[in-house]
Give the backbone structure.
Amino acid sequence: MRLKDRVALVTGASSGIGEAIAARFAAEGAHVCVNYRPGSPPDEAAAKRAVEGFGTRGIAVEADVSRREDVERMVAETVAAFGRIDIAVNNAGIEIKRPFLEQTDEEWHRVLDVNLYGAMVVSQAAAREMVKQGTGGKLIFVSSVHEDIPFPGYTSYCASKGAIRMMMRNLAMELAPHRINVNDIAPGAIATPINRYVLEDPEAMKNAVSEIPWGRFGRPEEVAGVAVFLASDDAEYVTGSTYYVDGGLTQQVTLY
């Protein structure tokens, strides 16, 4: 077990990539805090079902990552339950499709508050605990290929993901003296609820897959495998890096 007795917090872990990461961490021996968003009974139910499978090695915590008080409470609950925190995965994220000329302030701030500010606050709260513990730690950001590839109609989403990449690189330098590794996973087209509008449209799916050299959408479990590596001792000398899990999509865009 690569993460035996480590303590991990995974945000946005009630479905999709976050759910897969939490499950894989638990399978690798970690204690896991499964975060889910407030006001969503389906997310709450999914998070609690997941935790039941982890036994005494899991807790489900409701928290809005865009609210500092929620985040600090969530980190405190994780430490209270398991005695420490070793790994924090910033996975929670949203997107709102809107042409730039119609973008509202409310929509812009909502996306950046969850995707960027939320990742900053979670990282800060977790890193403060890690520094206090004095044994290092791992911060992992789940970004997107759209930190590099433009996505018309989703300017706020792309801006948040591009900013996450630079925040990750900066934190890698600042936190290196504390032996906190900071890295970034940039998934491409993954079969998750956020991509439902493509997955349920055969023509859109055909067009999307045609752009991917590997010829299919990725699975959440394939992203989780990279997260396990970055959370483990195998990645001890890895920091400030972005790992693309995209079936070659970014290379295809580069070529054409």
In short: The first strand starts at residue 7 and ends at 10.
